[in-house]
């Protein structure tokens, strides 16, 4: 699958993104020929986490309020507990996610990132998965939650790719690249 000529947004908070859920999909996009761009709520850099320990820092390419869905071919939402908790409190981040889903372009979410999808009100009627502790929130938001390594839902605009967590990264990356290439 080739992503040549495609630019993929990765939306992450200044702190709290699960590092491997950022770096593995990023590498998959790059290896497929795509151009990943790190979008955050603040300029500068983000600090990722390895579960509860601080991890590496990554440079921010653009601030979410200064970019448009039209600038990208797809969106990846890495997890981590603090990351989506921060993003769902930022109207410009929530609006960006909602507009991305409404555009029909692929959106991929892993682990706790589903909280941002819930806040954007884009899971109603969709079949999704997530970190198990988020399942009640997803059901309450109108989604059907299933315990599978990756779910690709097309019951709405575009493809919504969801996954449970780090152990499912291989399947998540494959499904994400497939959706982005399609």
Descriptors for this entry?
three-stranded mixed beta sheet; seven-stranded mixed beta sheet; 182 residues; alpha/beta; single chain
Describe what you observe in this structure.
It is a single chain. The chain is α/β, with parallel strands linked by helices and about 180 residues long. It contains six helices and twelve strands. It has helices at about 20-30, 80-85, 90-105, 115-120, 135-140, 170-180; strands at about 5-10, 15-20, 35-40, 45-50, 55-60, 60-65, 75, 105-110, 125-130, 145, 150-155, 160-165. It has a seven-stranded mixed beta sheet, sandwiched between helices. A three-stranded mixed beta sheet has the order 2-4-5. The chain has a two-stranded parallel ribbon with strand order 9-10. Strand 9, helix 5 and strand 10 form a beta-alpha-beta unit. Helix 1 (about 20-30) crosses helix 6 (about 170-180). The longest helix is centred in the N-terminal third of the chain and has 13 residues, at about 20-30. The chain is globular and about 35 Å long.
Tally of contiguous helical segments? 6
Secondary-structure class: alpha/beta
Helix content: 25-40%
Q: From N to C, what is the helix and strand string?
A: EEHEEEEEHHEHEHEEEH
Q: Would you give the CATH topology?
A: Rossmann fold
Mean of residue pLDDT values: 97
Strand content: 25-35%
Which CATH architecture? 3-Layer(aba) Sandwich
What's the name of the CATH homologous superfamily? Class I glutamine amidotransferase (GATase) domain
In total, the number of domains comes to 1
Stretches where pLDDT is under 50 for at least 5 consecutive residues are: none
């Amino acid at each position: 699958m080739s992503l040549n000529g495609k630019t993929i947004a990765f939306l992450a908070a200044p702190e709290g993104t699960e590092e491997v859920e950022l770096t593995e999909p990023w590498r998959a996009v790059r290896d497929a020929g795509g151009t990943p761009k790190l979008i955050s709520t603040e300029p500068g850099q983000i600090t990722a986490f390895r579960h509860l320990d601080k991890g590496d820092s990554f440079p921010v390419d653009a601030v979410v309020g200064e970019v448009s869905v039209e600038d990208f071919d797809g969106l990846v939402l890495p997890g981590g507990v603090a990351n989506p908790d921060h993003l769902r409190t930022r109207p410009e981040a929530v609006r960006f996610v909602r507009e991305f889903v409404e555009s029909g372009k692929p959106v991929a979410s892993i682990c706790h990132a589903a909280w941002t999808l819930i806040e954007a009100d884009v899971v109603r009627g969709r079949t999704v998965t997530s970190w198990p502790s988020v399942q009640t929130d997803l059901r309450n938001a109108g989604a059907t939650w299933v315990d599978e390594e990756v779910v690709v839902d097309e019951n709405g605009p575009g493809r919504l790719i969801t996954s449970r967590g780090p152990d499912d990264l291989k399947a998540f990356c494959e499904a994400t690249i497939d959706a982005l290439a399609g």
